[in-house]
Amino acid sequence: MEYTPSGKLKMSTYIMILVGIVALALGFVNDHTEHHNAFWANLLLNGFFFMTISLAATFFIAVQYAAEAAWAVVFKRIFEALMAFLPYGGIIVTIVLAMNSAGVAHMYHWMDPEVMDPNSEHYDALIAMKKPYLNQVFFWIRTVIYLAGWIYFARYFRKKSLEEDQIGGESFFWQNRTMSAIFLVFFGFSEMFAVWDWVMSIDVHWHSNLYHWYLFATMWLAFIALSLLITYYLKGKGHLKEVNDSHLHDLGKWLFAVGLLWAYFFYAQFLLIWYADMPEETVYFKLRIKEYGGLFFGTALFNFFVPFWVLMSRDAKRNPVFVVPVAILLFISHFLTYWLVFLPSATGGHDHLSFTDIGVFIGFLGAFLLVTFNALAKAPLVVKNHPYLEESKHLHI
Amino acid sequence: MSDKILYAVFGDDEVALNAAKKVTSEGVHVSDVFSPFPIHGIDPVIGLKRTRIAIAAFIYGTLGTILALSGMYYFMIYDWPQDFGGKPNFTFVDNVTSFVPITFEFSVLLAAHGMAVTFLFRNWTLPFMKAHNPIPESTDDKFVLEFRASENEKSLEEIKAMVEAGGVERIIEKEA
C-alpha cells in the first residue's frame, strides 16, 4: 500500500510556499518596527510553531510506545510523517537566533552586552543578575542540546519503525520503547528550557511558571488537529481502509481533551497573575489586553468554547461534519494565540496582525505539508510487523 | 404469574459472548447477563441501547455550574460583599474570574457523584438494597446468560440445546 501525493496536492503546497515567500519579502519591506523586529519575530514564530508540531508528534509517538498503546498503530505512519519537519523548523529557529546573536536582529534584550555592563548607561541590574543563565555561550550550548536531542530521537524512532517493516520481530518495538522512556524525560526538561530560552526570554523581565505548559498544550493540539485532518484526508482518498470509526473517535477525543487542557493552562496562568496583581507580572497581560484585547480574549474563548460545546457528544466526535471544521478552526486559532505570544513581546505592541503575517503562515504551512506528505510517500501507509498491529486493527469502543 | 427461567453458566467471557451471538442470531432473546466484569461487545448482541448516563452527567454538571455561580453571587456579592486583595467588589462580573475554579470543581463534583448515584440506583445496587443475583459465582469467575420462557417464542428446551452446543459449563433452571 504505497502512497503518492497527488499532483494537485503538491501544486497547492508549492503555491502556498510561493505566497509565503512573497509575504515574507513584503513583510520585510513594510515592517516599520525597530530593527525589523516584527519580521524576525514572525520568522521565529512560524519556524517554532511548525517545528514544535513535529516535536509534539515525536512526544506523542514516545507516549504510545512507553504506554504500549495499540489504538494508533494502524495510522502511526502519519505521526511519523509529521515528525519530518523537525530539522527544517530547527534550521529556521537557528537562523533567527543566530541573527540575534550576531546583532542583526534585536529581539532579545539580554543579548545586548551593554545591559550587563555596570559602567554602561544601559546597565540593567535585573537582567545582569540573570547572567549566569542568560549568556550567549550557555544559551547556544543549550540550543544545540535541545535541537540535536530532539532530531536524534525523532530519527531513531522512524529508523526503527522502518527496520521493523523490513525485518520484523519484537526487538525493534522494545528498543523504541526503551528510547521512548528516555526521550520523555529528556523532552520534559528540554521543552521547558527551550521555551524559556527562545520565547520567554524575549520578555526578559517577566516570568511565569506555567508558561511552557501553556505553549506545550498548543503544540500538542496543533499536532492532534493536523494528524486528524490528514487521517480524514487520506481516508477520503480511499487509503487507510483499516482505520475505523473507533480510531477516528479516539482522535476526536484527543482534540477535545487537549483543547480543554489548553484552556486549563491558559486560565491557570491568567488567574494567578490577575489575582496577585503584581505589576511586574501583569505587564505581560496588560500589553495584550490593551493593544490586542479582541484577539486575546477572542482566541481564548474560542479555544475553549468551540471544542467544549461542539465536540462534547459522542456522535459529534465521530462525525467529520463537526470534527473537521473544528480541527481546522482550532489549528488557526491556536496559531493566532502563538502570534500573541511572540509578536507583542518582540515589538512592544507596535505591530498588528496583517495580511503578510497570514501569508507567511500559509507559506510555512505549505512547506510543512510538502515535507510531511513526502515523508508519508517514503513508506507504506500502514506499518507491518508491529506487535500491536493486529490489536489496533480490531479497536472497538 | 409463574415463569420459567434458564441460567446458562459459562467459564469464559469469550465463550459466553459467542453463545449469546449464536442464540440471538436465531431469534432468541437474552433477558439478562451476569458477569464479574463488563464483557466487551455484548451490549449490541443482547439488544441493549447505548447508555444515557452521559446525558445525566451533563444535567448534573449544569446544575453544579448554576448552583456554584448563584451560591457565590449570594454569599460573596449580595449578602455580604467580600474584598479579595483589593479587587472591586459589589459586582459579579468583576469578580467572576476568581469564581471559575470553584464553579469548575463544583460542576465536576456534582457530575461525578450524580453519575455514580444514578448508576447504582439504576442497577438497584445502592447501599441497603437487596442484591438481585441468581448465581452468586457470577461475582467471581462465572459468566451467566439468563433466558425467560415468557420472553421467548422458542421453548427453554430448544434454547438449552443451543447453549449446550456453545460450550456451556452448567445449566440451572428455576421457577419464578
Report low-confidence residues of chain A grouped into runs of 5 or more: none
User: Which overall shape of chain B is indicated by the principal axes computed on the Cα atoms?
Assistant: rod-shaped
Termini separation of chain A (Å)?
A: 26 Å
Which blocks of ≥5 consecutive residues of chain B have pLDDT under 50?
A: none
Kindly report how far apart the N and C termini of chain B lie. 8 Å
Pair with the biggest interface: A-B, 11 and 12 residues
Concise account of the structure shown:
Chain A is mainly α. Chain A has 14 helices and no strands. The model of chain A has no long low-confidence stretch (mean pLDDT 92).
Features:
heterodimer; A: 397 residues; mainly alpha; B: Alpha-Beta Plaits; 4-stranded antiparallel sheet; 46% helix
Descriptive account of the structure:
The complex is a heterodimer of chains A (397) and B (176). Chain A is built from 14 helices and no strands. Chain A has 397 residues and is mainly α. Chain A has one domain. The longest helix of chain A is centred in the middle third of the chain and has 32 residues, at 136-167. Chain B folds into two domains: 4-49 and 131-175, Alpha-Beta Plaits (2-Layer Sandwich); 53-122, no CATH class. In chain B, 17% of the residues are buried. The mean pLDDT of chain B is 88. The A-B interface holds A 267, 270-271, 274-277, 312-314, 396 and B 40-41, 54, 58, 84-87, 97-98, 100-101.
How are the SSEs placed, and which strands pair?
The complex is a heterodimer of chains A (397) and B (176).
Chain A: H1 7-30, H2 37-66, H3 76-82, H4 86-101, H5 125-128, H6 136-167, H7 171-198, H8 211-236, H9 245-276, H10 279-310, H11 314-318, H12 320-347, H13 355-377, H14 389-393
Chain B: E1 4-10, H1 13-25, E2 32-34, H2 42-45, H3 53-79, H4 96-122, E3 143-148, H5 156-165, E4 170-175
Helix pairs in contact in B: 3-4
